[in-house]
Fold:
Amino acid sequence: MKKPGEKWSSQLGVILAVAGSAVGIGNYLRFPGQAAQYGGGAFMIAYFVSLVVIGLSIGWAEWTIGRYAGQHGFNSVPGVFHAFMRQRWSKYIGLLGLIIPLVIYMYYVIIESWCLGYAINFLLGNMHFTTAAESGSFFGAFAGAGTNGSALKFGLQDAAVYLTVVFLINFVLIYRGLAKGIEVFCNYAMPTLLVLSVIVLVRVLTLGTPDPSLPDNSINNGLGFMWNPTKTVVERQVGAEWQIEREVLGENAVRTATAEVSTDPALRIREIGVIEQLRKPQLWLAAAGQIFFTLSVGFGVIITYASYLSQKDDIVLSSLTATTANEFSEVGMGGLIALPAGVAFLGMAGMVGQSTFGLGFHVLPLVFSKMPAGWLFGFCFFFLLFLAAMASSLSMLQPGIAFLEEALQIGRKQSVALLGGLTAMGCGFVFYFSQDLKALDTLDFWVGTFLIFVFGTIQSITFTWIFGVDRLLKESDKGAAFSIPRWFGLVMKYVSPAFLLVILTLWILIDVFGFNFAGGAPKFSSYIQDLFIKPNTVAWLSIVLVFVLGAFLSLLIAKAPAYRSKPKGF
Ligand code: ALA
Structure:
């Protein structure tokens, strides 16, 4: 059997690298945005269920199967599936584990470069916004959201220059390899980002009520917005239906709303309970999607990283440690920074309906502009996001590198050049078609959400039913600091696949077929509209990009001698 050429230099190194892959923009921007949108405290219940059923369960399985395949000479995801399924077609399942990280890299690195650009501009004192319109128009110009191609300018306040730098750093580190590139970067970046997070967190939590004349705009209310399990809302009657008009938080807001409601019979105040919120399928989809995205589970990343471990290395505690580090940074840091700061300065009205990007690149720059020494805290926040994103984007390149080296039997120089060329084309496409961030948004939906659900579900089923859950648990015991409890095997074999199949079905019904659980006409998401109802050229081109990449990689998989013969010894 072929021996893997690369190894991690220490157990801590691999834990930090996996934690680095997990901790990213998802923790500090996507998580608070999703939690607030889907009910705060109620969302957290679905989130923690998903953490156990998807995060821990598939995470442990990915570490185990990855290390097992690595022991038999396979480091790439197609190799892993070829190795343990032993069918002529099984290597093609691994194609998903290549497309997902590569396509996500193509847009993720752009967001990473925005973070660096914002950090530098805060440091240079270029970020002073007094209104939401000002910060919004800065971002629009920076990211080229107004017109395709408009971000292609090379000034300090333009994204292109940061993208070039960030793209190159990623490839230099990947070229240096696992131990000297990824591991060294994560060894420095992870503690640094922890220190920066604490600095920003302490600043935010001590903001109190920045403007005493607006007592509802406070950190306490921001924390309530993020974490309260029940919601108080004002509803308006439209025909026979009561529709939510706004959420009410804080004593003054409740007093004002009560007075308003008493004079208008078309309005009412109501508390929405936890159970009512948990009945919404969208909340479960959002929670499960967040767990996949934040832990980099279902990405093809953990399998690849784990394939460089030896049988003496612990994987059970390492996986748990990396997951815990991610959750500490997500729930304990990300959950306490962005939204509370936004509410304290802009109030609830300024926060409602903010997307991940709205929160990160419109709201927070305005918030930092209004804060004393905001340039410093703005720099700390965006630089920590940049470090977190870089550790994640590096992990998205390794599956591609491992595959090219294994399939084409080429060296590091050639694999880096080939992958650099491929991702530069994809990244250039997303960067050029920047109007309304259409390409980025389309790829994030179809690859960064849909394909991850699909691949996660396939992994959950094949690992426990084809490889076998008993074998998997026995395999995970090797070198382990402690064993995965045997009862958890039942969760892995039955609960996780069932949970994921339900989620995937719901997702397809709601987001693809527009199924309306409230009854009535189908409600098609903008992504379906962009493809079939009001076809959008850039959305279609983005889908074509994924298929062309898939076809190219399939061809390489088909031709690769490494996956021709049946692996022995399994
Ligand atoms: N896991 C990475 C993040 O959360 C992709 O940003």
User: Anything to note?
Assistant: Residues 231-272 form one domain. The chain has 21 helices and three strands. The radius of gyration is 24 Å. The pocket of alanine is lined by residues 22, 24-27, 293-294, 296, 392 (CB under 6 Å).
